[in-house]
Design a protein that fits this description.
The protein has about 375 residues and is α/β, with parallel strands linked by helices. About 30% of the residues lie in helices and about 25% in strands. It folds into two domains: about 190 residues, Alpha-Beta Complex (Quinone Oxidoreductase, Chain A, domain 1); about 140 residues, 3-Layer(aba) Sandwich (Rossmann fold), CATH 3.40.50.720. Strand 1 and strand 2 form a beta hairpin. Helix 4 crosses helix 5.
């Protein structure tokens, strides 16, 4: 066994700052595993839920799940990546054998629900430990707020080598979640009307996905004028500051009183989920892409659902097929059809991770990205 020591941001309590610690990993990949040296990791709102205790999770924990890096070593049987490949990490590694994988829905994989969702590797172990041999969990079995990660083969998706790592990292969560929610989950059609509530990392990519699909009207709603400016730059045709304008009234005005065919919630609040549903036209679909804190519930009128044939649905990871979608999105970015660079509004070191979370709590910026040496 070869021990690899490296730096990681470790969460021990939501009530205290994260600690930059030296941790240890067995650097010899087991069959079906890939060792990745991280080059960049986005700071995502899902990490923030864990950071402030809105989600229950075991500690100590290396947070982070939106990463890109270089393959350092591969285990027996690995065929889809080679040493030296540039990869984007996928936080729903799939087994390829369960009913969901066979049906083409790998983000709902049984094995991930049983292991990765519990922050353990597919064999049920945790691979990281402290120098004192204390077990350390890795968020969704990735833990990209560390310099290395040992992941199952399906969690390391090779992409072209000319895409910058900071931009590539965002494909691992926000970009795929957003574009996929529009294109895969909801199936936005050419010429359709769309509302996106929340213009953070996911919401802005829903806007990009709707524009890619050919939507005629893309309405972006947020409390931040700066984020609404970003929304226009990425494809929104109309913007609403819902802190100063009644959202439903303005949506109806822009859609001849009907509401939109497709509404998306990308924040994770009960009020805005309900607003997205209320803003849909008869026969329309509201899609929830935002992640809520534990225990949050919503209230909707079931008669309205049946009488008007309205649909309320969820979208996990943009209903993506990461092995296919990650390389495609990388290509779209390099071809200029999807913009990833404007999403990176701050580049930080690992030591600045709590500063990034503090800015996130204030709604500042779109994506802070940790860049590793």
């Amino acid at each position: 066994m070869t021990d690899l020591t490296f730096r990681a941001a470790v969460l021990r309590s939501s009530q205290e700052p994260m600690r930059i610690e030296t941790v240890v990993l067995d650097a010899d990949p087991r069959p079906g595993e890939v060792l990745v040296r991280l080059k960049a990791s986005g700071v995502c709102h899902s990490d923030y839920h864990g950071r402030i205790g809105e989600w229950t999770m075991p500690t100590p924990m290396v947070l982070g799940h939106e990463g890109a890096g270089i393959v350092e070593a591969i285990g027996e049987g690995v065929t889809t990546v080679e040493v030296g490949d540039h990869v984007v990490l996928c936080w729903t590694p799939s087994c390829g054998k369960c009913q969901y994988c066979i049906a083409g829905r790998p983000v709902l994989c049984d094995r991930f629900n049983e292991t990765g969702a519990q922050h353990r590797s597919p064999d049920g172990t945790t691979r990281v430990r402290t120098v004192g041999n204390e077990e350390v969990f890795s968020f969704v079995a990735l833990g990209t707020f560390g310099e290395y990660a040992m992941v199952p083969e399906s969690a390391a998706v090779a992409v072209r080598r000319d895409i910058p790592f900071a931009e590539a990292a965002l494909i691992g969560c926000a970009v795929t979640t957003g574009i996929g929610a529009a294109v895969n989950t909801a199936g936005v059609r050419a010429g359709s009307t769309v509302l996106v509530i929340g213009c953070g990392g996911v919401g802005l990519n829903i806007i990009q996905g709707a524009a890619l699909a050919g939507a005629r009207t893309v309405i972006a709603a947020d409390l931040s004028d700066a984020k609404l400016d970003s929304a226009r730059a990425l494809g929104a045709t109309h913007t609403i500051n819902s802190g100063t304008t009644d959202l439903l009234d303005e949506v109806r005005r822009l859609t001849d009183g009907r509401g939109v065919e497709f509404a998306f919630e990308a924040i994770g609040l009960s009020k805005t989920i309900e607003l997205a549903y209320q803003a849909t036209a008869r026969g329309g679909t509201a899609t929830v892409a935002g992640q809520v804190p534990e225990g949050v519930t919503i209230s909707i009128d079931p008669f309205e659902m049946s009488d008007q044939e309205k649909v309320l649905r969820g979208s996990n990871y943009g209903s993506s097929r990461p092995a296919i979608d990650f390389p495609r999105i990388a290509d779209l970015h390099m071809e200029g059809r999807v913009q990833l660079s404007p999403l990176v509004t701050r580049r930080i070191t690992l030591d600045e991770i709590d500063d990034a979370f503090e800015e996130m709590s204030r709604g500042v910026g779109i994506r802070a990205v940790v860049e590793y040496e």
